[in-house]
Amino acid sequence: MSKFIIQVNGPAYGSSASVNALRFTQAALLSGHQVICVFFYQDGVYNSTELNLPASDEYDVVQQWKILAAKYQVPLVNCVSAALRRGIIAQQDAQENGLSHWNVGQPFIMGGLGELVTGIESADRLICF
């Protein structure tokens, strides 16, 4: 079986990238492959905001990422630089910079491109959406 890193470059809404990445990740895991992490980069960091409120009859891709992470223990990692430039702020970043609010929800964590590169070294494939 293969080891994958999934890179999501598209936002939760307005692009099919996130949904396609989620479905690929689900299929890979169900097929017995390992997903080392899902790395959210560029506009992909918008997948981690707690401020997405889709209508009750719409597919909630952000919630589905959370369910996947909990079920399979897959880390969901935001590129911290891409996130901060887009106003996607984790609690620790808010506290360190004197901000009273943050919008990154659990189980998303902040990481850097170094973590992506390190993960790539142990993966068989990097799949980008």
Describe, in plain words, how this protein is organized in 3D:
The structure is a single chain. This protein has one domain (3-128): DsrEFH-like (Hypothetical Protein Ychn, Chain: A). It is of the alpha/beta class. The chain is globular and about 45 Å long. It has helices at residues 17-30, 61-72, 80-85, 91-96, 113-122; strands spanning 3-8, 34-40, 76-79, 108-111, 125-128.
The CATH homology group name? DsrEFH-like
Helix percentage range: 25-40%
User: Any idea what the CATH architecture is?
Assistant: 3-Layer(aba) Sandwich
The total tally of domains equals 1
CATH class: Alpha Beta
What is the string of helix and strand elements? EHEHEHHEHE
Distance between the termini: 21 Å
General shape: globular
Name the beta content range.
15-25%
Q: Please give the number of β-strands.
A: 5
Radius of gyration over all CA atoms, rounded: 14 Å
Fold-level CATH name? Hypothetical Protein Ychn, Chain: A
Largest sheet: 5 strands, parallel
Strand order of the largest sheet: 4-3-2-1-5
Average pLDDT rating? 96
Q: What's the number of helices?
A: 5
User: Helix/strand-derived class?
Assistant: alpha/beta
Instruction: Identify low-pLDDT runs.
Output: none
